Amino acid sequence: MALSMTHQFGSLVGTPVAIESTAGEAPATMNAAAVWKTPATNLRCKASKSDVITDGLSPPMSPCRSPVLGGIRPDLNVACQAFTMEAESAVEKEHVSGARWKKGKGSGVPVYVMMALDSVSMGNGVNRKKAVNAAMAALKSAGVEGVMMDVWWGLVEREGPGEYNWGGYNELMDMAKKHGLKVQAVMSFHQCGGNVGDSVTIPLPKWAVEEIDKDPDLAYTDQWGRRNYEYISLGCDTLPVLKGRTPVQCYADFMRAFRDNFKHLLGDTIVEIQVGMGPAGELRYPSYPEQNGTWKFPGIGAFQCYDKYMLSSLKAAADAASKSNWGSTGPTDAGEYNNWPEDTNFFRKEGGGWDSEYGEFFLTWYSQMLLDHGDRILTSTKSVFDNTGVKISVKVAGIHWHYGTRSHAPELTAGYYNTRNRDGYLPIAQMLARHGAVFNFTCIEMRDHEQPQDALCAPEKLVNQVALATQKARVHLAGENALPRYDEHAHEQILKASQLNVEGNLDDTEMCAFTYLRMNQHLFQPDNWRKFVAFVKKMNEGKSTDKCWEQVEREADHFVHVTQPLVQEAVAMMH
């Protein structure tokens, strides 16, 4: 008899992160560039009582189970293949050419699933290999397009500069190819540990950490002298501070080695390179570090410009603007990590420094440094992966708290110069557009009313603003959920956001991809799995479908009968 799938995945796939419960409703007075349009077609339909699938029902035992045969019946693979073919036919194949591609209108949004952070062990092997293999088989059968995996700088080039060990990743890529899954490979040049969802610790390469220990100014630094080892300060991007190489050269060399090692899979199995540009792999400053309790939601964070390399750039910018007295330090009245905007002189709504001539100078410099950092790395990335058939993408953080205030303080400290009076996401989208890169955005699953009212959170309005910015810049938008969610409310919000029903979107453009967080034992619990399979099918159908959601759910429920025993039997045979 098959062991409990949830129990086995709990021991083999890893521990998920608990979701922080929040309540309250964002005020209706929040300013936003536009509002969601009501979809033209009502996708709900009436169903007779006997047809309705309720949340309380567990998937029935599949007819594919055969106690007599003691395993999976031969026709199970046929059924799985049939489902996979149907799912693939629902999504129009993309034509990929270099870093640019076109996607058919209304053709559905392919779903990827993010793998565990520690899928590759510190010994460069695959962790929980049999469980990962079973999970990949189930995901493919459910119509999932592929998986996203972190390729850790701190694992691959751990021992010495230019010494690359691709061990575990060779196995993972081969497993994905065997199951017919595509791969989004993240070039993870940051430390794992210290951020939301970090269940393991993977530091930067030890030789890089040694250089930071020798010169602490290679680390991002706040005004109180705290050093952050999550990612090397962008202030020294072009300086040969890492044993004769610049950080950007190190990143380019790493990506070149990746390309050469996996050239046989590029454009076929490996279809996307997401290049890390900061903490948590995001294009931002480490302004809200959770490590050691430094920051807690929904604090405003702190500027990270106090290492000597950043201060040198600030001084040069101030001298160029004939304001030399502005070049010695960042804002001194911007509060502390866990303050709220109105606690500070710099971020308060009335007469705040952010809205002064000095504030405009500093925030322009601070945000431009981040844009230049992204531009430098993308230039190298494009050079490395030119004509390989892969997309290039960049992740931007969904900083939704205090979005309803005038200053948008948490966005400003992270490097996004977005205020009530200024669009901070359009410059980012325009920079990505110059390189043909995808704008990948988080917090797609969140709804405004789920967040704390007093913190003026507005994730829906933020996602809407970003969608408009990407449309103006003519750059593709992809998404992912910021926190693990398995409920239908989150699924419905993702579906809504992925369809890009915003003012100004006059065609059937949708997100080019969505990455679901994450592969763990909760995803494979029977009720969560049933909801997930239905969610994937809805995403694949796209907004051009003439099916109502209940019909899609009934069809998806049929295939749960296929995937459920596939996972249960595969995991049971591991023992």
From TrEMBL:
Binding site for substrate: D150, H190, D198, K395, H400, T442, N481, A482, R518
GO molecular function: beta-amylase activity
Catalytic residue list: E282 (proton donor), E480 (proton acceptor)
Record keyword Hydrolase present: yes
Reaction(s) this enzyme catalyzes, per UniProt: Hydrolysis of (1->4)-alpha-D-glucosidic linkages in polysaccharides so as to remove successive maltose units from the non-reducing ends of the chains
Entry superkingdom: Eukaryota
Gene3D superfamilies assigned to the protein according to its UniProt record, in alphabetical order: Glycosidases
Keywords from the UniProt entry: Carbohydrate metabolism, Glycosidase, Hydrolase, Polysaccharide degradation
UniProt keyword annotation of Hydrolase present: yes
UniProt family annotation: Belongs to the glycosyl hydrolase 14 family.
Protein's UniProt name: Beta-amylase
